[in-house]
Amino acid sequence: MKQSFVKVGSALLLIFVVAFSAGAQSTAVKRFSIGTAGTAGALYPMGVAMAQTITKHVPGIAATGEATAASVENIRNLSTGKMVMGISQNEIAWMAYNGLGDFKDHKIDSLRSLFSTIYSYVQVFTKADSPINSIRDFKGKAIGVGAAGSGGEMAARMILEFYGLTYNDIKPQFIPETEAVNALKDGRIAAFICTHPLKSAILLDLTNSTNVKMIPIADEGFYEKFPFYTKYTIPADTYKGINYPVSVPISRVIMLTTNRTGLSDDEIYAIVKAIWENRSEWSNVHASVSAQVTLDTALKELSVPMHSGAIRYFKEKGFTIPKELYPPEYK
């Protein structure tokens, strides 16, 4: 009799374990990170808020926003599967997808666009009493060019190249924007190049506390050589003490994924839908996000093919998808 109870008990335990395991598998949550940028700009809070929206509205998915060195680091993390989503300047994504520039030995044609976000503004600052009035005047001086290998640093190299300079002609300081602001204030560098939203917190801190001027990049030849940039004029008085318009290059920051994430087209569709159907949950995190990350501009200036799941959502919303944005695997 006792032996029978033991057998029955063992059988019930086995059934319970199997049922519990099956239930656990059916409710398993897929977790991933969204690569953003440094915490000082608009992209980090946008990514964090979008991740919260995804987690809230997509069953079985949990996302988190992660501060990173932005474009280049995010693309590399996407290519290795460390991240599922991440932002990048569109010109950096284009070079990675096509195996150009710093990606010539590591082409990443698995990249897929999801949608456009804010503009990235290439801005150059120096002290108001500095003899620097042109990029050419950088020669022989200590210049902040962004964190090594970052999208901002790649932009700095393109700018220097156009004006006939290389790192051999200046004293490059590979420092992020927050450090560059402090270094300019302290006189440790003569100028810096940064890719940041207009009136970001660190740039307002600089212009409100220090007398500075901006160096324009107005030559039409620059925009002909690097057509992924658009010439934009920063209005006078955007920053304290800069009471004149300044021409600068801008490019879109795009949200990327890959076609090797392990997520299905249906899951990517659900993620994109959750983000855009709940825009009010993340759009107010920064003025740039509120003004520039809109459904109307969601497909503007995408530089690599879209993910099939994203295409499905935007077609449902009535968008016409340009031929060049369909990926090879689209069915």
Your description of this structure?
With 331 residues, the chain is α/β, with parallel strands linked by helices. It is built from 11 helices and 10 strands. α2 packs across α9 (265-277), α6 (177-186) packs parallel to α7 (201-209) and α9 (265-277) packs across α11.
Provide key terms for this protein.
331 residues; alpha/beta; 11 helices; 10-stranded mixed beta sheet
Topology of this structure?
Layout: H1 2-26, E1 30-35, H2 43-57, E2 61-66, H3 71-80, E3 85-89, H4 90-98, E4 111-127, E5 142-144, H5 151-162, E6 171-173, H6 177-186, E7 191-196, H7 201-209, E8 212-214, H8 220-225, E9 230-234, E10 246-258, H9 265-277, H10 287-292, H11 308-316
Parallel strand pairs: 1-2, 1-3, 5-6, 5-7
Antiparallel strand pairs: 3-10, 4-7, 4-8, 4-10, 9-10
Helix pairs in contact: 2-9, 6-7, 9-11
Query: What amount of the residues lies in strands?
Result: 15-25%
Q: How would the global form be characterised?
A: globular
Number of strands: 10
Which regions contain 5 or more consecutive residues with pLDDT less than 50? Answer: 5-9, 11-26
Mean pLDDT equals: 91
Class by SSE composition: alpha/beta
Order of helices and strands: HEHEHEHEEHEHEHEHEEHHH
Q: What is the compact description of this entry?
A:
With 331 residues, the protein is of the alpha/beta class. Helix content is 37%, strand content 20%.
